[in-house]
């Protein structure tokens, strides 16, 4: 395991987590302006699916399996960014 790959995975996934938060915030505003809950949920699910496909193709660490420590560290950093935004920044 190279520390360069580990640091790059953590930083890239943390940035992608923040980018996903911005994306979802924008999509929620658009969905709320439509005044149709079901259509808004469909837009959010479709947008998140497309975002996930882009994320899977953009990351340069695709050759690692999902159980590799570099991938796990990236997933954890993505989750930490999402959790901190939901439970810390939204409460302020």
Helix and strand layout, with pairings?
Elements: H1 3-33, H2 37-58, H3 69-89
Helix pairs in contact: 1-2, 1-3
Give a short summary of the structure:
The chain is mainly α. It is 80% helix and 0% strand.
| Secondary-structure class | mainly alpha
Beta strand % = under 5%
- List the helices and strands in order: HHH
Distance between the termini: 39 Å
Low-confidence segments, given as residue ranges, are: none
Relative helix content: over 70%
How large is the radius of gyration?
Answer: 15 Å
Name the quaternary structure. Answer: single chain
Mean pLDDT: 83
Shape: elongated
What is the strand tally?
Answer: 0
Description of the structure:
By secondary structure, the protein is mostly helical. 80% of the residues lie in helices and 0% in strands. It has three helices and no strands. The protein has helices at residues 3-33, 37-58, 69-89. The chain is elongated, with a radius of gyration of 15 Å.
Notable traits:
92 residues, mainly alpha, 3 helices, elongated, single chain
């Amino acid at each position: 395991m190279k520390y360069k790959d580990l640091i790059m995975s953590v930083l890239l996934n943390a940035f992608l987590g923040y980018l996903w938060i911005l994306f979802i915030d924008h999509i929620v505003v658009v969905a709320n302006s439509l005044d149709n809950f079901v259509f808004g949920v469909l837009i959010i699910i479709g947008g998140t699916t497309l975002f996930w496909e882009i994320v899977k193709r953009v990351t340069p660490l695709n050759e690692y399996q999902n159980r590799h420590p570099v991938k796990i560290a990236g997933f954890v950093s993505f989750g930490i960014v999402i959790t901190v935004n939901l439970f810390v920044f939204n409460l302020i």
